[in-house]
Write a structure and sequence with these properties.
Elements: H1 2-17, H2 23-36, H3 42-56
Helix pairs in contact: 1-2, 2-3
Length: 63
């Protein structure tokens, strides 16, 4: 499902951070989904990704 991933990840970064993901963030997201979707459904993986995304960037929200 990596064809679906690119727009999904881009949309989430636009929504939460008002910017596109960096190359590093994109690779992290892709690896995250590869790992997660071996164990759970794509929609569950998406929910887990959003949670991980917000936790990894929560410092941005402290301002």
């Amino acid at each position: 499902p990596s064809r679906e991933l690119a727009p999904l990840i881009k949309t989430l970064y636009d929504h939460f951070f008002q910017r596109p993901p960096s190359q590093k963030e994109w690779h992290w997201g892709r690896d995250f989904f590869e790992q997660e979707t071996q164990e759970v459904s794509f929609s569950e993986a998406t929910a887990n990704y959003i949670q991980a995304l917000l936790m990894s960037n929560e410092l941005l929200f402290l301002d």
